[in-house]
Specification:
This protein is an alpha/beta fold and 140 residues long. It is 34% helix and 19% strand. The chain has 4 helices and 5 strands. It is globular and about 40 Å long.
Length: 140
């Protein structure tokens, strides 16, 4: 099943009521630096989070401070999301998010699995990026 959802509405709705949700306003996130700050705040990362892709990968593959078994990253106003970044950097982030969500389905016995979803408010730009990179998604 796809880890990405393209949502036609600007809100998540009741299907995500049990989720721990990080809401990211894409209109205010034109760069990776801004994304790191927003995801840190949205998921309540511990203080030792460093604002880079390696640290993001480490923290998203931990999530021990989040008790909920369902976690979502919701990017609303997604047309502006990472608009100032080169496609290569965006693809790196999208692939990391997809791999992380997939890895959570297959954790070791000593860890509780998490259902991680990455949700974007539908935009042609985001759909095009996902298609170009070959990342599966569901449109709702």
């Amino acid at each position: 099943m796809a880890n990405f959802i393209l949502l036609s509405t600007p809100t998540l709705g009741s299907a995500f009521s049990a989720y721990r949700v990080a809401i990211i306003d894409g209109a205010k996130i034109p760069t990776l630096a801004a994304f790191y700050q927003a995801i840190e705040k949205g998921l309540g990362f511990p203080e030792d989070f460093e604002h880079d892709l390696e640290s993001l990968d480490e923290f998203l593959n931990d999530l021990e401070w989040i008790s909920a078994s369902d976690v979502a990253i919701f990017v609303k106003n997604s047309d502006g999301f990472l608009a100032q970044e080169k496609p290569k950097k965006i693809f790196e982030l999208l692939n990391l998010l997809d791999a992380t969500a997939e890895d959570w389905k297959w954790v070791d016995d000593d860890m509780e699995p998490k259902n991680v979803k990455i949700v974007f408010q539908t935009s042609e730009r985001i759909a095009s990026l996902l298609n170009e990179e070959g990342i599966a998604y569901v449109a709702q």
